[in-house]
Specification:
4 strands, 46% helix, two-stranded antiparallel sheet, mainly alpha, single chain
Amino acid sequence: MPIPLLKINTINPVDKVLYSVMMNDYPFYLKERGVYQPAISILARDTGSSESTIKRSLSSLEDLGYISAISKKTGCVTIWQVYEVDKNGLPKTVEDVITDRIESITGIKSSTSQYMATLNNDTSSGTATLPQYWEPEDIEESPF
């Protein structure tokens, strides 16, 4: 379980355990099946809770923004998105995740909003141009 989540007193212990199980299983399901679609009975077994408790916890975690239902159909298993937590134990926004990935790829600390602010937005034409990071003469020709 992500340690920062343990420090948050507004989330009950069952929700913390359920989130931990979901966060642990999420990468495996995505790799093996392409979606995270756990059955309520499996989550109940893995957490040692009843199915009704799991349903309440799923609803609570969804309301708090730690997970979201991608597909909820009656009679079908729900597909879930599980969000990472930040250093304070709060769910990361999509912008936070993108920023983390940009930093890991480029090694440059910045924020997505700072990057987006560098875009030259031409509101009259409805287009945006990306900043130029290299000059065309800096690009070597391919030997192929």
